[in-house]
Amino acid sequence: MKSYVAQRLAVALLTLLGMSLVIFLLLRLAPGDIVDILFSAAGYVDPQDKKAIMQELGMNRPYWVQYLEWIRGIVTGDLGKSYRYELPTWQLIRPLLPVTLELAALAIVIAVLLGVPTGVVSAIRQDSGLDYVLRVLSLAGLSMPSFWLAMVIILSLVAWFDWIPPMTYVGPSQNLRLHLLQFLLPALAVGYRSSALIMRITRSALLEVLREDYIRTARAKGQTPGLVVWRHALKNAMLPVVTVIGIEFAFMIGGLVVTETVFNLPGVARFLVQAIQWRDYPMVQNLVMFISIVVILSNLAVDLLYGVLDPRVRYGH
Amino acid sequence: MDRLQRLALLGCAATLLVALLAPVSPAHAAKAGGILTLTQREDLPQGFAIHETATISSVWPAMPCFNNLVLFDPLKPNETPDTIVGELADKWSWQDGYRNLVLFLRRDVKWHDGTPFTSKDVKYTFDMLREAPEAPQKLRLNPRKDWYANVEAVEAADAYTVIFRLKRPQPSLLMMLASGYTPVYAAHVPSASYRTGCMGTGPFKLKEWRKGEFVEYVKNPDYFVKGRPYLDGLKYIVINEPGTRIAALQTGQVEVSFPSEVSKTNAEQLKAAVPKLVITPYSINTNDNIVMNMKKPPFDNPKVRLAVSHAIDRRALIQAVHQGGAVPGTALAPRPYGAWGLLEPDLQGLPGQGKATDEKAKAKKLLGEAGFSPQNPLRVEMVTRNLSIYVTLASFVVNELKQIGIEATLKQIETAQWHPMGTRGEFQIAANLTGIGPDDPDANFYENFGCGSPRNYSFYCSEQVMSQIDKQSQELDPKKRLTIVQAIQKKLEEDVARPIIDWRLDYFTVWPYVKNFIPHQSMYNFGRVQEVWLDK
């Protein structure tokens, strides 16, 4: 197990290194840079001034020097300064992390709480009226973009309650009720889509398991239907579901852009888009690396969970 | 009537007299206290460094921190030389036939860190702005250097007297000094520090700038205008999503709309939803225009340029693109939204202002004369910024051009590339928006139509027009100046220097308890918030 984790972490490091190279190069290949944006905000361009600013920001150095300096910074804990805000990037990124992590976690909890039970019910009552209703609901969730749902939620709140969640971040220690409201609604918007996916995967995986011989044996031995489903079938059907949950969680860290924007939550994804628009290389590079780390770690966590869910899965062989 | 009654009557009369003679001021009704919540469409692009930007996203949230030498009266919507009031300068005087502007500074002003404000700060700021050789610092970006091209020297005669010495008379200098774009910086802090913080003399002190989230101010207790500001603080919340901004305004989470934010359609929806909202239409001093690159074919041919200008039905565009929330005009905003623009009757006869069918017929004829026909159509690439307000304008224009046989394809350009592309002239034709600080001919003409100006994207250059621009700039008689300015505007349209399509209106929206927040002729000049109070 330990050697498996060590091996996976070594691969993760290589993946991160490759990722860092890709993001570094892609950013430089995109047209325009921070200096162009600054001039755009000033409404004119002066080639001499542009040169001076590029020098000030260190952007005139060869790419390989800039890349190595960034990597050296990551290793030594110095993530560099944001071009736009002229502040250490860690200082800017740090407050964003809890917002996005909390939102993603809450969305996943909602997705699981909605998706797994409905998937189970749908599988048990296959081809019944309830199954059709739940499948239509899940199809609606998959077809409905979360940003659209987020906008509909905001507009409905305005129309019916003349109220929307707070527009600035409310910490849990400031006002827990408002904090929960602020996060629950966007989490619902995102979680509904994920729950639809989880529901469909749960349903199909469970249907497959329910046709297995050992389930028939359990039933023949007189175990109650509930016990058969929840103890014997569901645990074995959970492998693909856990995979989907892991992927969805990782996706949410970087994919909450529109939801964070619509609900005005100061999270990683919203800030990342702003940083890309401003060609704030240090911010983008470090945020992408953070997202990559989350993706890698959540995949690792999912792989480790396989062993817990299915004792047949062995590591390191 | 006994003595006592006579005394009582006398007392009543005296009280009445005092009441009648007492100065009537809105301040009497004003209430102090409260936090005003405003909104921002994006985070501050360059922090509080107003001198390094040309966007409302900077000047709007940064203005409360600063003071100018002079400012357009916050309580008067019109911006003219007559509505300029003193801020850091309490008196000023033009001397030597408008060649020297002498400003007498207030002696009771302190920077937010307690350092006394003196003429040294004024000299420092304006030497830096005009890039004088003796300037102790250089701005990283200096978009309004041209405003001070006529300033020969800035002298600090003593600690509280400053003299602007001009190369030639220029009464308009005062208008530019009164713009929200012209705060005085502190000489004792580096100019670069304004990108991350704010050292001002203004009515509000910066409390916190939480990046990407909000900017918060608290009342400056040592503000030199006694009794001001009324508010205890301000909070500018960054809301990137337009729909959410409107929802926040409608539900009262923000109490004031962001300038240029509320279209006519939005205003109607808001009014229907919350009838008590106070909505004031005003010009944001921004026009829609078409820029044709005169250095490149086919727009080096005046007939082709003229054909394009004739082809665009301004009034149809105002209805289709702005739902009526704009007005036709030329290089300067027309009355009542501006002071200098041509009025409706004066527009008649100018390209694109007549009956649509006649104008399109003229356009087709001109194209034919330039050698283009249905068999040999003119094919061009129209560029515009990849922002919806640009794209809707450009799409309409493309359709108009199609009707006269010009096949235009639309290419959207990212913000990062827009100004570099314009300055380098790497385009044929562009649908553009131009915003102007103060409603003043000097601020507009030199910047957008002056030979060699970096923001003259069409590369239009006419010696005749330049001499007229210089002439109006020096004209001391307002009526004569207006006549010259209007003649210049006609000439610019006839030369198709940069055909103006319309002047955009904004519908400034506040909750009814927000008092004294009065939109001006330009959105860049009324964000001080010194006089605003809450009637809650």
Structural account:
The complex is a heterodimer of chains A (317) and B (536). Chain A contains 14 helices and no strands. Chain A is mainly α. In chain A, helix 6 (96-124) runs antiparallel to helix 11, helix 8 crosses helix 9 and helix 9 (176-210) packs across helix 11. Chain A is globular, with a radius of gyration of 24 Å. Chain B has 536 residues and is of the alpha+beta class. Chain B is 30% helix and 22% strand. Chain B has a six-stranded mixed sheet with strand order 13-17-12-16-14-15. In chain B, strands 1-11-10-9 form a four-stranded mixed sheet, with no helix packed on it. In chain B, strands 5-6-8-7 form a four-stranded antiparallel sheet, with helices on one face. In chain B, a hairpin with a 4-residue loop joins strand 5 (89-95) and strand 6 (100-105). The longest helix of chain B has 19 residues, at 3-21. Chain B is globular and about 75 Å long. Classes of the chains: A mainly alpha (317), B alpha+beta (536). The interface between A and B is large, with 45 and 48 residues.
Please describe the structure with a list of short key phrases separated by commas or semicolons.
heterodimer, A: 317 residues, mainly alpha, 14 helices, 78% helix, 0% strand, globular, B: 536 residues, alpha+beta, 6-stranded mixed sheet, 4-stranded mixed sheet, 15 helices, 19 strands, 30% helix
Kindly summarize this structure in a few lines.
The complex is a heterodimer of chains A (317) and B (536). Chain A has 317 residues and is an all-alpha fold.
Ordered list of secondary-structure elements with their pairings:
The complex is a heterodimer of chains A (317) and B (536).
Chain A: H1 2-29, H2 34-42, H3 47-57, H4 63-76, H5 89-93, H6 96-124, H7 129-143, H8 146-161, H9 176-210, H10 213-220, H11 225-255, H12 257-262, H13 268-277, H14 281-309
Helix pairs in contact in A: 1-14, 6-7, 6-9, 6-11, 7-9, 8-9, 9-11, 11-14, 13-14
Chain B: H1 3-21, E1 35-40, E2 45-48, H2 56-62, E3 70-72, E4 84-86, E5 89-95, E6 100-105, H3 119-129, E7 151-158, E8 161-166, H4 173-177, E9 204-210, E10 214-219, E11 233-238, H5 242-250, H6 264-273, E12 278-292, H7 302-311, H8 314-322, E13 326-327, H9 344-347, H10 356-369, E14 378-385, H11 388-402, E15 406-413, H12 415-424, E16 429-435, H13 441-449, H14 463-474, H15 478-494, E17 500-510, E18 514-515, E19 533-534
Parallel strand pairs in B: 1-11, 14-15, 14-16
Antiparallel strand pairs in B: 3-4, 5-6, 6-8, 7-8, 9-10, 10-11, 12-16, 12-17, 13-17, 18-19
Helix pairs in contact in B: 7-10, 13-14, 14-15
